[in-house]
């Protein structure tokens, strides 16, 4: 290796070092620490944890509340991920058509919910869902429907949280879709128009196939994001009413910081990590092979 190449590689590693250190300290080390702690019984009061092997995992898989929280989490992801991706694709296609000069403004408007504090957004949506003076019930009354107890009814609480999550993630997805649409070569679309292709044919045969890398990225990102939902539940419902919104991370939180069963909570975290890795692998196997890269 030449001296110039060595200096170039060294400079690259030096520039990567701060990010790698952050990744090591705040991601990799905690994962291994949690994996080790899941083999112990520890209530944070004893000076040292008690090794119990796989007992936490055995208790976990015998706990009905764990399965319920896992099923609610998967249901929540199914409600939010497809809806966010489909609605945001529609908005992105509308914005991409004839609004190129104002794209920076629209990107900023759509991206605002992503950079806004989730706690602040949750408080605003609590007012929207208020059963007495909330905007949601005002709209229902205006169209002649009966008001709902949105967050206070176990039948509607999870759906209410899903609606908020869809709204919050649409902006991010729109911006990513717009970036993908702007990256499609214009000469391909122009050639298709010259061959007599209409808007629908261009969308189905050109834009959507060339957008598959973007769709694939959003599918994996949103799935991982929704499986780890916590903040809005902690602020808006605390897992209620009657446990109807206790998703798996909220379940983990309750065992870790209310019951102080840190080993058991670490076992939940490891199972959640395994589920995320498994779902990501399945998505890459089933969807990844259908991605068209230019």
From TrEMBL:
Domain of life: Bacteria
Keywords: Cell membrane, Membrane, Transmembrane, Transmembrane helix, Transport
Chief localization: membrane
SUPFAM superfamilies to which the protein is assigned, alphabetical: MetI-like
Similarity comment: family membership: Belongs to the binding-protein-dependent transport system permease family.
Subcellular location: Cell membrane
Protein name (database record): Sugar ABC transporter permease
Record has 4Fe-4S as a keyword: no
Pfam families: BPD_transp_1
PROSITE patterns, per database record: ABC_TM1
Limits of the ABC transmembrane type-1 domain: 70-283
